[in-house]
Amino acid sequence: MKKETNYMQCALQRKDSHHMAWIPEKFAVVGKFIKIKNDDDTWQDGWEVMGVADGTKKTAKEADAQSQLYKKTRKASDV
What we know:
Layout: E1 6-14, E2 17-24, E3 33-37, E4 43-59, H1 60-77
Antiparallel strand pairs: 1-2, 1-4, 3-4
């Protein structure tokens, strides 16, 4: 049986850009440099993990649902 990957919410930085993302727990290490996948399915290298949220872990399904809340909120609040 395959072990399910847990995800953690992390603050990421690349040059002057900042981003919050749910990333696999094994990469959620402050100071680690990672690649993240863009909306167009390309990968962007050079993101540094600046912080890890309070230790709350989520499954892939839970993390995906949580990440979609931002899009729904943004769509409802943009003028």
